[in-house]
Amino acid sequence: xxxxxxxxxxxxxxxxxxxxxxxxxxxxxxxxxxxxxxxxxxxxxxxxxxxxxxxxxxxxxxxxxxxxxxxxxxxxxxxxxxxxxxxxxxxxxxxxxxxxxxxxxxxxxxxxxxxx
Length: 116
Prior knowledge:
116 residues; alpha/beta; three-stranded parallel beta sheet; 4 helices
């Protein structure tokens, strides 16, 4: 664990630890308008009438929710996984079916990782 903290830095590690309860709260919100309101409070731009089902986020400690920009009347299906390491911008009327994965980076975060 210490090697991970050394590699990503103390600041990112602390940010990750602090935001875990935030995501746990988001995941408990079952009503899509509440999910949108919650993400807006965290800095995301969510258009009117956008529906967020059981969406999951990762790497949010890197860029934060301000990197999420969803247009009006978008639909994000259940079990979609959105990578917030860099920005995600959807125009109006974008639909993601269930279990879609959106990656925004190629660096997996560890110098010795086999994917590097």
